[in-house]
Amino acid sequence: MDITNKTALEIGQMIKNKEVSSPEVTKAMLENIKSRDKSVNAFISVFEDEAMAQAEKVQSDIDKGNIASPLAGVPMAIKDNICTKDRLTSCGSKMLYNFKPPYNATVTDKLESGGAIVLGKLNMDEFAMGGSTETSYFGAAHNPWDTDRVTGGSSGGSAASVSAEEAIYALGSDTGGSIRQPCSFCGVSGIKPTYGGVSRYGLVAFASSLDQIGPIGRDIKDCAEVLSLISGHDPKDSTSVKRAPYDFSDCFDGNIKGMKIGIPTNYFGKGLDEDVKKPVLESAETLKKLGAEIEEFEMSIVDYAIPTYYVLACAEASSNLSRYDGIKYGYRNRDCEDLMEVYLTSRSEGFGMEVKRRIMLGSFVLSSGYYDAYYNKSLKVRGLIKKSFDEAFSSYDMILSPVAPTVAYKIGENSSDPLKMYLGDIYTVSVNLAGIPAVSVPCGFGKNGMPVGLQLIGNAFEENKLVKAAYAFQRETDFHLKKPEIALKGGNAQ
Amino acid sequence: MSVQEKMIACLAENTGILIEGDMLENVKTRLNMILDLIGYSEASETAAVENKVVNVAETGIDDALIKYLEELSRLRLTPEEEDRAKEELTKILMYIEMLNELDTDNVDAMSHPFPYTNNFRDDERKESTDRELILKNAPQQKDGCFKVPTTVE
Amino acid sequence: MNYQMVVGLEVHVELSTKSKIFCSCTTEFGGEPNTHVCPVCSGMPGVLPVLNKKVVDFAIRAGLATNCEITRYNKFDRKNYFYPDLPKAYQVSQLYLPICRNGKVEIDVNGDKKFIGIHEIHMEEDAGKLVHDPWDDCTLVDYNRCGVPLLEIVSEPDFRSADEVIAYLTKLRETMMYLGVSDCKMQEGSMRADVNISVMPVGSNKFGTRTEMKNMNSFKAIYRAINYESQRQIELLEAGGVVTQETRRWDDNKDASFAMRSKENAQDYRYFPEPDLLPIEISEDWINDTLKNMPELPEAKRARYISEFGLSEYDASVITAERQIAYIFEEATAICNKPKEVCNYVMGELMRLMSETSTLAEELEIDPKKIAEIIELVSDGKINRTAAKEVFEAVFRDNAEPEKYIEEHDLAMVDNSDEVERIVADVIASNPKSIEDIRSGKAKARGFLVGQTMKALKGKANPQTVNKILDEKLKEIL
What is the pTM of this model? Predict the structure, then answer.
């Protein structure tokens, strides 16, 4: 029996039923990492011994009846911008190549109290800036479906680890599509929660008003379970909303009759690959068949989302990344005679080019004389975008769209043109600007066999509607069950 | 409304004469001559802010600006990186210019995604973190402090 | 040409909250370097700030006391700049919507009253401390002060003399201490001022170019610096020069200001709204509650001391200058109901001892009950004023118990007429010359005998008793 290709909830149940033990699953996953990650490069660090010890401990807690979580004992992995106490948290950057935080992120604490087994930390674009996981200091991650192609990003390691069955589920973070887009590229499911739904404490900040942590899993049900585990108000995060954790228990009846789904026609115009357009529109048909009411509408303001996003995200990033100065932690060039040299050399050598570009763009839009024309203007456009979503949700339960304009492209293909790369975020960034939730689930394959994702966007704190629809869709389809070859050939049967 | 249009409207209102056709063209030409004479340009009326923006959008990011951004960001690029950054940032800024198509005069700046306010904690004291843990990631430390090259003038 | 100085102040006061503005570390002064520090105030990756509500309470209080409008919807902004004492490389402050605006404070310089405008008051976090290590030629960074809450009180450029500045600072300090908002300990940097100075021809209303002196923490230095700097600017202008806008450093030892390196001029703080903190909404109720719980301010106290206790204006202003002194005065008065007596002891003995021992008002631990007790003992004739002084000093220095101290040191008045009689008899017996003098009509000699008796009784006897007994004895002999 191969247990490594099961869902988190299935494995959790099997552990409870004593069909398999947490150490056994953990060991099998570690074997998969060993045999597959050379070609995928999803992991930045693997905590082999610690994971085994943790599995033993959690197993004994389960045996004693001390942990009730359905995810107890299930091995998973965490994106490397989420703090793990005393364990490397590098953000995919040379700047933090040796940083071991003396604290856990709130989500890390919640996972541990739910009995999660942390296998390691996952590869990502440097400081989550990128859409391909090519800008990582630890080398590009490779798409399990075709290792010549990118995983997407910035949570590329997270999506690839789940896709290649090196982790049962993973945590990622999403600032402008960084969970949804790699899910689409790697054929797995993911949720970008409502801003404020999950604590950001311990998530190394990229753009504070946009960042959210979310789950990536084999199917939407796993994602929902993980999300309810990590969500809820955190007194350490002022922007975390005072609500109870999510409860998705009534989302899995597959009944979406009468659900109103809007399709913004301008999302399907120029720039969208036929390879993506076709399966996404077919999924709309599937949902319709299941009883949803589908209607087209116009949402032209979203065309302005990318410039707005890059102004705001870079501005916040330029400030958030100023603390990396070679003094308190991380990389420092040691041969500095004066303070200015410490700053200049540590930062110039510690950050990669994409990070530097965004810091400089951010400094520019905030600098004296340009603030109103760029930064403040973008805050206003952000208001317009939010308003436009509010209007849409007064008519629809959710919005259906593509996740990315293309399937995963070849490594190196886009990295020379940052603007082209930024345009790849066209369908995802407006969700972060509006602070609302969205899911990405597999909905088909391109002509070259690469997976395609479907995005469902919901109103603030209406993740349950999205989960319900995505579940109905996955019950009807089998795209999420398809495996890349690497997961088929390298499986470690027990 | 341009300054020229405003002046024509004002003229019409004060004289009661309908200015149109040839007369309009005639008045426009003369007004432009006057405006030229006093060195007026449409752009100089708009705020200095917009002026700069116009410059950046038209001329791109120049050497001085890229150096300034490096200084603000505490980054030092190689000459090749500077050239590349200039070109790329200019391209991105040109693209961002499209935001000016939108009228946002009566829109509030949205600095936070939701309208929540007032998240406080009580004034309670808790144990601080062990100094060892605070300093353990420091590249250089001495006597319980982070150590940097001298900062005194 | 005659010139007029124009001065504006940015005063920083550290708030006396228990914990820091965005984390639960202590705000206590001192401590080993980096021991009042956690991941939040040392700016580690991924940490987030949570606002201490007390800081907002204090800001509202300070704003109401300085006649400000409270900004009902206010926000924090980030001020970005690199310096090792600022671990996040941005200071969380308020630029666009500060919590208080448009206030005013009345000052009094030798009877001339004047309002100084308050432009705004905003909340912000303090930075850490840098110590130069001369042995190693390096700088050591201590984050203990990082995140201590501050109010920055920005005045309008309304000052026209150094005396006005000092009057304002004194008033502000007094007010903040009374409000319980800050201890305003200048020597610990919990009150400090950035001083902006320019000069303009008398009669002009166009301000000159200003210079700034930052982080000044002594009234004396501020006074001298203002006079020096305005004079420097005047001399410069008179010699045909121009004033450069710059930050200058005041050197108290050299009694002169010096230009700092001018790279400061290129500061571009790139302020923007702090996304990690929610905006603050202040309701009518919140303001009313604050008003209700506002401590009585010095001015109101002064007026009350004059009308209720009959103190002179001068005495009332001395007593109310420090919150702790006023507290001691009120408590002692409440017990013994002798305000003038209490006032005399406070202004006499207490203040003398404070200056002898360099004790600051806020460090006073003297129990007002004991002051009242001493006053009662004097008025009941249990001790005389000389003894009272001694007891007071013992209470001040060693927290002595008055009754016990009097007993142990034998300071009580001698009411026992037997003892007085015995002593008087002794004195008469040992001073026959004086008796002769009295007989021959020299009245002065009697006074000598009284003195000798009091001396023998160590001053503890009631003079009336002594006089009475001496008269009786003399009558017997004469």
Answer: 0.87
